[in-house]
Amino acid sequence: MSDQPSSSAAKRPAKRPAKPHRRPQKDPVRFLAFEALRAVDERDAYANLVLPPLLKKARAKGNFDERDAALATELVYGTLRRQGTYDAVIRACIDRPLREVDPPVLDVLALGAHQLLGTRIPTHAAVSASVELARVVLGEGRAKFVNAVLRKISKQDLDAWVEQVAPPYDDDAEEHLSVVHSHPRWIVSALWDALGGGRAGIEDLLEADNERPEVTLVARPGRSTADELLDVLGEDSGLPGRWSPYAVRLAEGGEPGAIGAVHEGRAGVQDEGSQLVAIALANAPVDGRDERWLDGCAGPGGKAAMLAGLAAQRGAALLAAEKQPHRARLVERALVGNPGPYQVIAADGLNPPWLPGSFDRVLMDVPCSGLGALRRRPEARWRRRPEDLEGFAPLQRGLLREALNAVRVGGVVGYATCSPHLAETRIVVDDVLKGRGGHAPVEVEWIDARPLMPGVPALGDGPDVQLWPHMHGTDAMYLALLRRTA
How far is residue 431's CA from residue 419's CA, in Å, rounded to a whole number? Predict the structure, then answer.
């Protein structure tokens, strides 16, 4: 028998060696961003609470620098802000309803879509990094699905995709704005009603909601000054506030906790709109004495800290009340070191322990939908539902009635909320004053809040005030000032 191979065996191609299995490589930045998105989705967590401890843990392990932290932050917040637009694009690239795609897969796809459509990351890097993340957190099979979808997305830029997936403005204006600017339709409608005007104004507002907000510091009265903070920060890192004399704007990338006054509690992080509300209440004219102030919904303590400092400068005392004990502890922490007398208690503003007519000034910053802070909490737009406002309504009206009951004749009540929704602002005040819902009407006179915010433009016809992100660079805070007359 011949030792030579047969002619058929000689023609058979040699077998290629099997490709060695490559273990997926964990990208710490994208893995951290995925963890944050899963926490937001699974636990109804807020990104601004979830992300800092994840970043701190990553830094502690080493090999995770400030650039990594900045990218992870952009991936999380950018994905959450543009989720509605990215969902519409992803929906156009798959052959099943979006609800049938597992949420972790959607998170990886949305992260990839943001890198492709919302950042300057090169296309090949965005796709390969997202597929590698999918291999780590989803497995090989679903990573192939992610790869196929992202390659379809990468064929067009954001403008082309929006033109494809959004209905024309003339056919359905609200749905067009909803897809283009990534807000639920009902929120677009509600904001448009509150804002009034035409297309330009609502587009400016929705665009402002999708911008990264500045970090604004507050120099707590009697404990620090804006000049002190500016001196510490220097010209490259700090800018004066636009409207509040206590505000300092932090340059991008600045770390508030590294500032001595913030670390010591003499200053804090507080939106300028929130500062303006506290200042306006403190400066509203009262008839007679001005000795006892109340913050009836004080948690987590930003406005209470301002009011306590302003009260101390006039020899007045603040009582800060907060229903939730853990939030009351946050208020206590914010007020430590205040130069004048104050007290913090855990108490329900609907069933207060104080006597009627006990206070000269009362702030009632009521719980609300938070639609005024969508820049800071972008996930709230996807979490809230129209019916949520029905749940807040009786609480808001009850708290305002109790605030008016707590103030003496001649004293002032400030009703505030971080929402521009008419159902949480002017309608609440009108209902309480006119006694709708079976309650007695309340005798008050309106105080024009506009002169109490000097230099702030575009405050409307008054007497109440609505601030706007696109007009004032603040959260959309609302304030009504009422003086008790009988």
Answer: 17
